[in-house]
Every structure is written in C-alpha cells, then in structure tokens.
Amino acid sequence: MALVIMTDPDYTDTTWCRQTVSGLLAEAGRKRRPHRFVPGDPAAWPDWDAVFDGNRRILVVIGTSVAWVQELLSRLSRENIQVVLVSLQSPAGTCGISTVLMDHERATHALLTYLSGLGRQGIALCGINPNSSADRLKESAFLAFWPESDQKAVQKRIYYNYASISACCDRFCCQLQPPCDAVICANDVVAIALIRQLEERGISVPRDLLLASFGGTLLGRLNRIPLTTASLDHNELGRQAFAACQYLEDNPSVLSVSVKVGCQLVIRASTGDLTPQTGDGSFGESETLTVAPIDFYDDPDVQDILAMESFIGRCDELDLQILAGLLRHQTYAALAEHLFLAENALKYRLRRMLDWLGLANRQMLLEHLSAYLSAASLQEAVRIKLGERS
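The structure corresponding to this sequence follows.
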C-alpha cells in the first residue's frame, strides 16, 4: 500500500516542508513502503479510487495555510478520505482529523521564560501571520503567558504580518521604545529581516535589544548574528507523521490521533549567549485576529532569505570554502592553491553557484552573501556539513 502525500502549494518549496517530507520518506524507505505525491490543487486531483486501490484511504497533508486547509478538508470529507494534518492545527468544527504538530505553545513559553528570566519584561512578538495555524498558536501562548490584567498592553506588543515582512518589521522599528527590551520573531526568516532593519536604524542586537525566534534553519545558525531559537525538528515531524499513518492502518477502529513534537531551546549570539533560566507555566485560550489571508511565501523578502537558505544547503564543503575565501578577498590563484584546486575548476564552481542564485558576477555574489554571512560563518557551515557526513 503506497503512502499518499499532499503538500500546500505555497509551502512545498520551503526548507521546512522539504525537511518534513525528508523525515517522512526516510521512515517510509526504512519500512520499504512506496509513496506517491498528489497535487494540492483540487482541480488537478487524481482518481482517488485508483490512488488508494481498495486500501484504507489515508492522506498525509503537509502545510501551514489555514485558508487552504479549510477548503481542502471540506472537499476531502466528501471523498471519505482520512486526513493526517502535519504542521496544521485542525480547524474548529472539524472532527476525525489526525494532527502531527510542533508544540508551539511550549516553545513560546520556553522563549518567554528564558527572556523574562534575563530581566526582560517588555517582550514583543513580531511577524505573526494571521493565516498561519502555527503562528496563531504562538500568539495564543504569548498572550496567555502574561497576567490577565496586562492583556490590553500585551496585545499592543504583537506585530502582525498583514502584507509583507518588510512592512511588519518597519512598523516594529518605528514603534520601538522602552519598555520594549526583547523580541520573539515568528520564524528565522522574520528574525533575519528584522535584524537588517534594526541595523539600518543603528539599533544593535543584542546590545540594545535581545532577539529570539522559532526555527533552527541553517541560515539562522550561520547568520552574522546567529539566532537564539526554539529549534523545530521538522525531520522528526515527518517521522511522527509516518508513525501516525501506520498506527491508523493497524487500528481500524481508531478515528484519529494527535501527536506533538517538542522543541529545543538553543542559545546563540542574538541574546548575547546569556544563560537561560527555567520554569513552568500554563496556557489558556485567547482571541485571534481574523483578517484577509496573506501569502507569506510570495513576499520578496521571504523569497530572498529562503533562497539563501536553500543555496547554502545546496553547496558542498568545497563550494563553501570557495565562498569563504572570496569574502576574505583572496584572489582566484591564491584560493585555488590553498584548496589544491585548478583555477579553471574553481571558476567553474563559482559560475555554477552564480547560476543557482541567478546572479551575473562575483561582485554581486559577494554583496548578496555579505548581507547574511561572514567568512567565519561559512567555515562553520563547512564543519556542519562534515559533521553531517561523519
């Protein structure tokens, strides 16, 4: 019986979706289970009877868009398909839907406990997408962390991504004033964009403002100011999605299951590498905003940051060493000699990397790289790649 998978069209090409699918397919491969992808656009759906071929109709759905999944579930219910939602909260009013989620509530609580333990009380939340199921959970947990008497003031410290990350970050920077002394970003993409805007205004992270995010992307780790994160293991999310499917298949009387994957607090330079404090707390329900859906992944800033994340992931160790040498302004001849590489071979690799990013020349590449990375962080990327292979 094939494992049938559908991904949100706007989410498919992101690093998070690729990691989730990688974990899912790794488990499927380990169990010698074939798999099949079906399109997320209902207009392109296949013949479901042919897809499932008389077997139990279980579909893994991976995505983040609330609007997309609401329409999707209503259509799938008419096809008598059992859904395992990955990265998406089941919409209110639905039943019999299995979910495999990051524990965003506990992750939010961990970041808030850490920052407040460092004496930060004017903590803001930036980049919340009202059309993202995960971001709504972060918003709810953020509000629930503070006393009920403070809710009106706390609500003003939440900055929503209504149209673009750039506009959201600009709004935060323009309104930034005491007592705001720390910010939690909705994800690493927002965090990287916000740091750039803060720097343009002469505001230093972490000297003037502590910053943390949700993520664990390679670019967030390698950023010129490496990000403190509630690190999300999307590979594990995929593995747990496979386990949920297998459990449903082995237990026909079970209508749905619910799985939450934990997050790890990783402390880095964006909070000054300061030692965290620990503590427990509870969560409650809170109102969330209802606004017109926005397309997070259609944002040019998002596309640029995710393209760089994808580019660094695509480079091998030698590519990264070449880039580090170029950022140190080494000549082609000196760099080729240092790497025991023919100069023509070095230039070939450089041209290939320019093509990956759609850039015309070395200078454009250096300007693009230096917005996110340093020679030292690229050397760290080499060590990470070597560690992954060993």
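The first strand starts at residue 3 and ends at 7.
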